[in-house]
């Protein structure tokens, strides 16, 4: 069976969920061979094997942490050269897309970004994308070279499928470009204890209707009752009520959770662009004519200051 390279996103050996989802998709088109780079790369092997990786290629070097993406591209290309895979799958983070694009240019291949599904096809893997505020679903395949495909988080279920996961050291020679852009400092973001916005299975967002930073507590309380991440519209972010890192939309983050709850958000096209692929969309808005209601699976016409606390209470009561 053809091998499929899966680029591993991990933090000190802890594999992030989107990579496990990629393994589910990779198994549909071949045998997953994982590529884990940087500190703790070898510690990823158990989780990757548990989810179907037949092999785990690992490399660690100071370059991965000290410079921007090029050393990682060099390593992924070394894995590509060693394996000659049928496809290369990369998580659709900002970094993942840059790595994938650079690899595709280097190996002369077509690339598909932000896929939301993937299936085997007679002429290579077929990727599904969602376009124009979810007005269109497209299917496409790469017609030149080895398909390089980035896949959005939450596009597939994580499935256990134990495989050998044999660890092999990957030999990487860094290109002259690798050390072109040095990381000069790092400031870790303060942890909220909530899941990462782009990876969360549930996102609860607030918009201008929340009417003040001090009121975002009710959005956070609903998020916490559901174990969700908190998002915000640009109007809420521009007003200084919530950090830009939580902005959902065209100029913010793109999310694709199982459940997206929009509170006091009108549903402007630029907001929709960042959440249109959410599986189930719920909106709370006091204006029955708000465009967000064109998009939702469930809508509540009502005042969020009444609806959201009641919802939180109900969720907490049912958990109890
Ligand atoms: C180039 C460009 C890029 C942009 N990028 C983004 C982006 O990344 N993300 C983004 O979100 N926007 C983006 N925007 C802005 C976008 O066009 C909208 O202005 C913005 O999304 C509106 O935010 P909102 O829905 O919170 O506010 P509004 O459009 O003002 O809507 C507020 C909603 O809250 C409802 N409401 C008010 N009070 C209550 C209440 N008590 N209970 C219930 N409902 C209530 C109202 O009925 C209304 O529907 C961008 C715009 C441009 C031009």
Polypeptide structure, described:
Helix 4 packs across helix 5 (94-107) and helix 6 (216-226) runs parallel beside helix 9. By secondary structure, this protein is α/β, with parallel strands linked by helices. The longest helix is centred in the last third of the chain and has 16 residues, at 304-319. Helices cover 28% and strands 24% of the residues. The chain has nine helices and 17 strands. Bound molecules: flavin-adenine dinucleotide. Flavin-adenine dinucleotide binds next to helix 7, helix 8, strand 16 and helix 9. Residues 4-183 form the Electron transfer flavoprotein alpha/beta-subunit N-terminal domain. Its cofactor is FAD. Belongs to the ETF alpha-subunit/FixB family.
């Amino acid at each position: 069976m053809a091998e499929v390279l899966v680029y591993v996103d991990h933090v000190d050996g802890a594999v992030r969920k989107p990579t496990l989802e990629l393994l589910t998709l990779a198994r549909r088109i071949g045998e997953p061979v994982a590529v884990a780079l940087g500190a703790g790369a070898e510690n990823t092997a158990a989780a990757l094997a548990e989810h179907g990786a037949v092999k785990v290629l690992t490399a660690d070097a100071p370059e991965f942490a000290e410079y921007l993406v090029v050393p990682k591209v060099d390593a992924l290309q070394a894995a590509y050269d060693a394996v000659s895979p049928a496809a290369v799958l990369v998580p659709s983070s900002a970094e993942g897309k840059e790595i994938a694009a650079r690899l595709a240019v280097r190996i002369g291949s077509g690339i598909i970004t932000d896929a939301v599904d993937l299936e085997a096809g007679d002429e290579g893997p077929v990727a599904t994308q969602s376009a124009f505020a979810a007005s269109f679903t497209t299917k496409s395949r790469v017609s030149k070279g080895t398909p390089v495909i980035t896949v959005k988080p939450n596009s597939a279920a994580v499935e256990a499928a134990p495989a050998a996961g044999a660890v092999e050291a990957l030999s990487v020679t860094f290109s002259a470009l690798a050390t072109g852009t040095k990381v000069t400092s790092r400031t870790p973001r303060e942890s909220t204890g909530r899941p990462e916005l782009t990876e969360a299975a549930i996102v609860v967002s607030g918009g201008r209707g929340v009417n003040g930073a001090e009121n975002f507590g009710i959005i956070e309380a609903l998020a916490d009752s559901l174990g969700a991440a908190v998002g915000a519209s640009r109007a809420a972010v521009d007003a200084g009520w919530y950090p830009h890192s939580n902005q959902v939309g065209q100029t913010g983050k793109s999310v694709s959770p199982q459940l997206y709850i929009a509170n006091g958000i009108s549903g402007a096209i630029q907001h929709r662009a960042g959440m249109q692929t959410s599986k189930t969309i719920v909106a709370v808005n006091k204006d029955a004519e708000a465009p967000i209601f064109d998009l939702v699976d469930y809508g509540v016409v009502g005042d969020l200051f009444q609806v959201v606390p009641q919802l939180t209470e109900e969720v907490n009561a049912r958990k109890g």
